[in-house]
Write a structure and sequence with these properties.
The protein is of the alpha+beta class. The protein has three helices and five strands; from the N terminus they run αβββαββα. The longest helix has 22 residues. It starts with a helix and ends with a helix. The structure holds zinc ion (ZN).
């Protein structure tokens, strides 16, 4: 099996435009940016999905994401960012190593909100309480 491309970046075997690194996390520019400054933030612990990442790594990852938003926005002159995880293949995750996208956003950049991801009809409001209960029952 091929090594994970993000683990190879962490090891320095694949070069990256790194912008931050500490003992638990790393951030670098996406090589397929959809906006100038499009950044990926990853845990060093290899894990496919966010919900499978150990809680202490989630804390480290979140702190790094939080610390990078301001500098990224200021560096690119952006007043906003879209911050997102594609969590699993069906969600569009292409590299099976948890990564957060920080995407600087600009007026008239042509992008839309996260609510524009799906075009299928939303579940009817009458189903929301059933859905909420089914989630709560599994926690
Ligand atoms: Zn990996």
């Amino acid at each position: 099996m091929d090594p994970c491309i993000f683990c190879s970046i962490i090891e320095g075997d694949i070069p990256s435009h790194s912008i931050y690194e500490d003992k638990d996390t790393m951030a670098f520019l996406d090589v397929n940016p959809i906006s100038p400054g499009h950044t990926l933030v990853i845990p060093k612990h290899h894990c496919s999905k966010l919900n499978e990442l150990p809680p202490q790594d989630v804390v480290s990852l979140t702190k790094t994401i939080h610390s990078l938003i301001g500098p990224i926005e200021r560096a690119l002159g952006a007043n906003a960012t879209t911050i997102a995880f594609n969590n699993g293949i069906e969600a569009g995750q292409e590299v099976p190593h948890v990564h957060c996208h920080i995407i600087p956003r600009f007026p008239q950049d042509g992008g839309r909100s996260i609510h524009s991801l799906l075009e299928k009809p939303q579940p009817p409001l009458t189903k929301l309480s059933t859905i909420a209960e089914s989630i709560k029952n599994l926690m």
